[in-house]
Specification:
This protein is of the alpha+beta class. It has one domain: Cytochrome Bc1 Complex, Chain D, domain 2 (Orthogonal Bundle), CATH 1.10.760. Helices cover 33% and strands 18% of the residues. The chain is built from seven helices and eleven strands. The longest helix has 13 residues. It is globular, with a radius of gyration of 16 Å. It starts with 8 loop residues before the first strand and ends with a helix. 32% of the residues are buried.
Length: 177
């Protein structure tokens, strides 16, 4: 993998966002100041938003890999494989270039209706009561953000890190809380 610099850098057949930066361990994250929270088992940015952590060999942190799995379990039917969109749902890889994490959570939880030219509508259903989405939303976001930033190419990720103990506790708390 090519080292990332300010601006866009070609990586395989994708373009890496200027927002993606290298960490001290050589991994790529979305933005500066990413830190691992062992209690939650997740990587976070200074803003508090979850982020991906992708090693140089393409190995994903477990949360982002779990997001890949859950995206393809719950979201790809409408939004297409790898978040590239379909004839009736937008490409989330494009949407996350400008959509904030909080806006993403709001749309997923509450849904959204977009009125189309000619009188049609595009409806995103509210998924706030679906624990198979909401308990994994940080991972789904991290996966889609990594795809949007061009850090994770299309297809099955190269590998995943071991599941952090803290992430297991976070998931259990969500499902049982």
């Amino acid at each position: 993998m090519t080292a990332l610099v300010a601006g866009s850098v070609a990586l395989a057949t994708t373009t890496v966002s200027a927002e993606a930066t290298k960490t001290e361990d050589g991994a790529t994250v979305a933005g500066k100041g990413a830190e691992f929270d062992a209690d939650a088992g997740k990587w976070y940015l200074e803003s508090g938003d979850p982020t991906y952590h992708v090693k140089e060999d393409g190995t994903l942190d477990f949360l982002t890999y779990r997001g890949f799995q859950r995206y393809h379990s719950e979201c790809h039917v409408c939004h297409g494989p790898e978040g590239v969109g379909s004839t009736y749902a937008p490409a989330l890889t494009d949407s996350l270039k400008t959509m904030s994490y909080s806006d993403f959570v709001g749309v997923v939880a509450s849904g959204r209706t977009v009125h189309l030219p000619g009188g049609g509508e595009s409806v995103m259903p509210a998924l706030g009561d679906n624990k198979n989405v909401m308990c994994y939303l940080d991972g789904i976001y991290a996966y889609l953000k990594a795809r949007s930033d061009g850090v994770v190419p299309r297809g099955r990720p190269a590998g995943k890190e071991a599941k952090p103990e803290g992430l297991g506790k976070t998931e259990d708390s969500c499902f049982n809380g």
